[in-house]
Automatic annotation (TrEMBL):
The active site is at residue 264. InterPro entries: Ntn_hydrolases_N (IPR029055), Pen/GL7ACA/AHL_acylase (IPR014395), Penicillin_amidase_A-knob (IPR043147), Penicillin_amidase_dom1 (IPR023343), Penicillin_amidase_N_B-knob (IPR043146), S45 (IPR002692). This is Acyl-homoserine-lactone acylase. The lineage of its organism: Bacteria, Pseudomonadati, Bacteroidota, Cytophagia, Cytophagales. Keywords: Calcium, Hydrolase, Metal-binding, Zymogen.
Amino acid sequence: MQRTPFKPHNRSYEKAPLDSSPQPFGPDTDWLFLAAPKPPTGLFGHTAPQQFTAPVTVHYDTYGIPHLYAENLHDVYQAFGWVHAQDRLFQLEMMRRVGTGSLAELLGEDLVEIDRFFHTLGIPAHARESAEAFRKNAPAPVQDAVTAYIEGVNAFIREGKLPLEYRLLGHTPRPYTLEDMHGIIGYMSFTFAMAMKTDPLVTYIAERLGPDYLAALHVHTGAEHTRIPNHSKGRWLQSADPRLPQAALADLLDKLPVPLLMGSNAWVISGERSASGQVVFANDTHIGFAQPAVWYEAHLETPELQFYGNHLAGVPFGLVGHSRTHAFGLTMFENDDQDFFVETLHPENPLEVRYGEAWEPLRVREVALAVKDADSVHFQVLESRHGPLMQEVLPELQAVTEQPVSTWWIYTKQETRALEALFRMNHAESPEDVAAAAALIHAPGLNIMYGDAAGNIAWWAAAQLYERPEGVDSKIFRDGSTPEEAAHEYLPFSLNPQSINPPSGYVISANNQPDTLANGLLYPGYYYPGDRWARIAELLESQEKWTLSGMKAIHLDVKNKQFPAYAAGLLAAVSTADFSALAPALEVLAAWDGDHDLDSSAPLLYYTWLYYTLQEMMEDELGPDFFESYLKTFMHIRSVGKLVLDPTHPWWNRVDEAGTQTHEDIIRRGLEKAQKVLLERYGKAETWTWGRAVSLEHPHPLGAVAPLDKVFSVRAPVVPANEEAVNKLAFDLNGTGAFSVRSGPAMRILLDFGDVEEAISVLPTGQSGNRFSPHYADQVKLFVEGAYRPMDMNRERIQNQSRSKLVLQP
């Protein structure tokens, strides 16, 4: 099918003179920034549009993935803007409105609380500031690529067929801007920020319950948790650092019309461990399931660029991707990059707070929110030297202290250079290029995984790390009036955790604790216990030579080898003879190996029993809201063993009942509740299976309103849900006996540099966000069954097999 050619506006302008001075991008990047013309600034804060200089051809493959061929970078990025908007414009709309705090303008007053939260945190203001810094400081090639992409998006908004969602909402999208793009980056950074979900709870436990209660949890990494090993010999970037010179939060996040980034796995093995003798690369990012899926795949080719990437809507550069010579991926670093401060208000002036021996005025930021079908909402954001006061948008804080609490978040303290970093990674020609790009990322913290055709493998923890004053616990609120407690000493990138060509022959990251920095500091964070890292390493060590076919089994592994020990601890505390109705399920649980087979009853009984045991154990101290919040933190997953297997900690004591309860009493009561729920829901225990309890739906932003859920959301077949296996298909632990998978692999990628053109991938639903596209959900079955499809870069094969073609003319 020949698509109608797209012709952008013909708009003339005078070319600015050549800028003969290359703009620095890092310590060793002069090769990238040759002199380039800079068009004058145009409408909406981005540069005026340029026409294509030559035709751009786009071939769409069997799964609707575009393969763009152009004569130069400007043309290919402008064409990509059009193509990306054509498939994902409404997704872009949702993401930019979250990041710019303007959801209520489109969706109404129910979203005011979310907008107010993001404005208070400062993401929209930071987006404006970063956009202005980008215009002033970003290298010319990056600016030109971003500008071209924005014009391509806006050309589609002006001239393309808008998706159905806009007609249903009665809305015409405004032009896309550089501020919007930085707002999307801010939204992504926020989804990584674990402190707001964790620190109020940790501080509450420390202050209201005491150190013994806190010690029973793994607030910080324990000795039994797996750490990512460093290997710094031969590091490519030594010391140069281009950066330095009224609902509860959980309820609020449930209203977000875009998914949250949750975790991820990635591993890269050297040629010594592969059957091809070349590096093999694997990545599966863990993100909240949604429709459309987060990642958009695209293949861009010009004489100087051959890149196949996974892109966020509204961002021109892939966050994960590969060329014919290198590949990079990511997981969440999970470093702690946010601190909370309890401020002391002046007794007679609520706009002043104490700092040292003096009183300082609070800064006042005025915000006006446009609201669909309602009056605008006006409010003030108050900021101390540490950051915005959050108690108005985080009611959990009021349970911790009556004083105002401010937050210091490194993301809003420095301009983001993420676009520069991603451009550099997409255009990299060496590991040095990727290392220099990683050094530009200050937040969110990312594990950058790398492999290349030259045989190199590497991992860098990319983030602006800092050292807190001695004795400060990063998870406990600090005193905002004490100057020494407010200090943040920035560390150079050269100290960050990393591993380059280690003797093991592989690098792995799975959101677990990296080993100590080069200066000996074990960096605090919100790390997972390392079950996935250890399982991946165990599987990699199980054979000498790996193929892509063998790697698929690792991607799809759903066994957690720690959980059977926790289940045994539960079983040891009760007399199974007292639960004769559960005998078949208890026998299966006693023999459980940690697999999540859909035909087994073990996971169903384990998770339901665990929930009620923890509820009986903790809810009396925490209350129902904080207990449910606890279950959504990293602490829950890495503290289960410590809580269940240690009979001496104080959580076993019921503070709301007279007398002393033992851990056996609590576990028995948990099983009694689980028995009641499961027998009522599923009947006899011998009929229970995990598959009966699990469901997966990919929700669309408009799917919250019936009957639009039937139109837009995508129901998937049953998957082997689990809390912490390699193929992580996560759910909220609960006591209903039904478990709805909320997040999991947002893609699965496998690549062998022995034959890059045979790389494979899969998305959870499909490539297109347009409801009536054949590619809206054509990968659902592949994903659930553990199948893959090509990430093709063979031009002849792509042209021969192309299902449709789009030609964009000058």
